[in-house]
Amino acid sequence: MMSPELADVQEARDRIADSVHQTPVMRSQHLDAHTGAELFFKCEHLQKAGAFKARGATNAVLSLEESEDVAGVATHSSGNHGAALAMAATIRGLPAYIVMPANASAVKKSAVAAYGGEIIECESTLAAREAMLASVLERTGAVVVHPYNDPRVIAGQGTAALELMEQAPDLDVIVVPVGGGGLLAGTALAVKGLNPRIEVVAVEPEGADDAFRSFGLGSLQAQTNPNTIADGLRASLGELNFEIIRKHVDTIITVPDAAIVDAMKLHWTRMKQVVEPSGAVGLAGVLEHPERFRGRRVGVVVSGGNVDIDHLPW
Amino acid sequence: MMSPELADVQEARDRIADSVHQTPVMRSQHLDAHTGAELFFKCEHLQKAGAFKARGATNAVLSLEESEDVAGVATHSSGNHGAALAMAATIRGLPAYIVMPANASAVKKSAVAAYGGEIIECESTLAAREAMLASVLERTGAVVVHPYNDPRVIAGQGTAALELMEQAPDLDVIVVPVGGGGLLAGTALAVKGLNPRIEVVAVEPEGADDAFRSFGLGSLQAQTNPNTIADGLRASLGELNFEIIRKHVDTIITVPDAAIVDAMKLHWTRMKQVVEPSGAVGLAGVLEHPERFRGRRVGVVVSGGNVDIDHLPW
Fold first, then answer.
1. Where are any strands of DSSP class E within chain A?
2. Residue limits of the Tryptophan synthase beta chain-like PALP domain (chains A, B) (predicted)?
3. Same domain assignment for residues A170 and A46
4. What percent of chain B has pLDDT over 70?
5. Looking at chain A, which residue has its C-alpha nearest residue B271?
6. pLDDT class of B285 with cuts at 50, 70, 90
7. Residue A263 lies in domain
8. What sign does the dihedral B175-B178-B183-B184 (CA atoms) show?
9. CA nearest to B287, candidates B37, B90, B106
């Protein structure tokens, strides 16, 4: 796999421009006062299909050669990437086969179904997901679009940071949640390619801290038995992602689930924005490590808003 | 009391411009497809203090003569106007005395307190509120700013519609919730003053339908024992409000609480916006009376977002 570069992120932006939203950047006087920082929230919960994942999935689907006789696209996903890929597949009129753990949230399953994706359930382990995906590929002849360990997906996810740097000039730091590492790797490529002076800080749940450990040890560590409310961040960091992250990311910090829930509630009550746990991890990082951000201009990527409002974590 | 006119709304806009937000207008592809209309949501849940009430309260406070020796401002309110008046009072450095029914929501009480307002609790009947307010005025010498039956408040509330007509040109109809009638009267003045071709449709909960009855009968009917989830719309229509509404509003429709909850959930899940029950009443009207709106460009005022997220109505 070729590692993507800034130019790939820029090309992705042109490729997906007509298919995804340029999401707004929101401010909050209350949260600025609360943190002592100037916070610029990049609202990817307002993205199509409710998460930044639409960017990478759309870039991957639109990167398929028009001439290719593609039988469909397939992936495994706990939710947001699945819905995003199903949505992107409709642009090319392709079937989408989405392998989902049986314990994926109902709202994420119904989003996949709403875009016409075919859901194939499996156990929630990485091994079970990969085995089921292999069998789906064999049965359907579909092309796999991995949720994060894919250069087209990484380049697509980086387009949010390109927009954010234009919408909020002169940022000192950009804060991004990390799970599999697609958003973080794409963001790091975009930010360091355009303005290496901007710090890139990743935030990870304590209960799924493989990126934190991998970054510290300098070698890829697997995530076994993740235990966090942030269901979008339970995946193991990808190899391609890790190579980019170790090169371009400045630091990775971790946050407990309690801080994630607090941040989520602040998004809801103060900004009136429905943000899912994984989407609130950036703000949780700012709240947990205030000294790092005080007095600075901080871009925070709010990565998703797909919550089951009938089952809230409080 | 002088009845306000379009010019008062326009002056209010200039007066409050530096003190309140010009809120954004949001679209939703899903809700457009669902209703067959083009919907333009005026996001007053993103207004300061979380509701359009900031406009009227700020206009009232800033209309007090600078030279006047004002001892403070006071009102009775189930919540959003109280928080808005407490917020507006801080602009002039005035104390704010807010009479609230003991059963007002915790989140609305804490908003008043957060702006430094002094809360005085009373029974939830209109008579009890007015008696308590009278005693507060006697004790403090404060100036009363009624939540809706006040020309300065009506003019202030109308500024949201002035913005909406610029942000979403060529609307066919503007849909507004009605409780005491401040927002509706102000909107009607703004809309009919500038472009009488635009239809003004008010939406009211079935369980607090005094505006609907008053409008139909041509004389002001009191609201006794309101029974609706939309706690911001339980008040009785004001006299001044009714005079403006009967002159300038095209129609009033009612919606059951079930439709309000459905609309609220759509705001949350599809638009990722935290909207309170009263704030979702406009969309509820569109959903309940689809034939009235299909194929038209519809402005919908989303009036507030102050929900107690620990106690959701589902």
1. 25-26, 38-43, 73-76, 96-101, 118-122, 143-144, 173-177, 199-205, 251-255, 297-302
2. 18-304
3. yes
4. 100
5. A46
6. very high
7. 6-52+151-302
8. positive
9. B37
- Could you give the maximum distance between any two Cα atoms of chain B, in Å? 56
Structure tokens at B4: 């306000």
Q: What is the DSSP letter of B3?
A: P
Check: CB of residue B282 under 8 Å from CB of residue B175. Answer: yes
Cβ–Cβ gap A273/B275 under 8 Å? no
Other CB atoms within 10 A of residue B33 CB: 9
Q: A312 contacts in B (CB within 8 Å)?
A: 309, 312
The tally of domains found in chain B comes to 2
Q: How far apart are CA B85 and CA B136, in angstroms?
A: 15
Helix (H) or strand (E) holding B132: helix B126-140
- CATH number, position B170: 3.40.50.1100
Quote the CA–CA distance of A294 and A297 in Å, as a whole number. Answer: 9
Q: Give residue A126's pLDDT.
A: 80
From B207's Cα to the closest Cα of chain A, the distance in A is 25
The CA distances from residue B10 to B55, B91, B157, B160, in Å, are 12, 21, 11, 11
**Pair type for strands A199-205 and A251-255:** parallel
- How is residue A185 written in tokens? 């790797």
C-alpha–C-alpha distance, residues A195 and A182, integer Å: 20
pLDDT by residue (tens digit) across B173-229? 999 999 999 999 999 999 999 999 999 999 999 999 999 999 999 999 999 899 999
pLDDT score recorded for residue B67:
67
Contact check, Cβ <8 Å, B309/A314? yes
Separation of alpha carbons A250 and A174, rounded Å: 10
Cβ contact A181:A173 at 8 Å: no
Question: Do A309 and B272 lie within an 8 Å CB cutoff?
Answer: no
Q: What is the DSSP letter of A115?
A: T
The per-residue DSSP string of A154-214 comes to HHHHTHHHHHHHHHS-S-SEEEEE-SSSHHHHHHHHHHHHH-TTSEEEEEEEGGG-HHHHH
State how far the alpha carbon of B235 is from the alpha carbons of A104, B54, B147, B277, B312, in Å.
44, 18, 10, 15, 22
A105 and A38: one domain? no
Residues of B with CB under 8 A from a CB of A: 24, 45-46, 50, 107, 265, 268-269, 272-275, 305, 309-310, 312, 314
Residue A16 and residue A108 share a domain: no
d(CA A22, CA A10): 14
Say if residue B91 is in the same domain as residue B134.
Answer: yes
**Angle in degrees, 0-180, between the axes of helices B182-194 and B239-248, rounded to the nearest 10:** 30
How close is the nearest chain A Cα to the Cα of B139, in Å? Answer: 33
HSE-up (13 A, CA, CB side) for residue B29: 8
Chain A residues whose CB is inside 8 A of the B274 CB are 268-269, 272-274
Does residue B45 share a domain with residue B169?
yes
pLDDT recorded at residue A78: 74
For chain A of 314 residues, list the mean pLDDT of each consecutive stretch of 10.
94 98 96 97 97 98 84 90 96 95 86 94 89 96 95 98 98 98 98 98 98 98 93 93 98 98 97 98 98 98 93 84
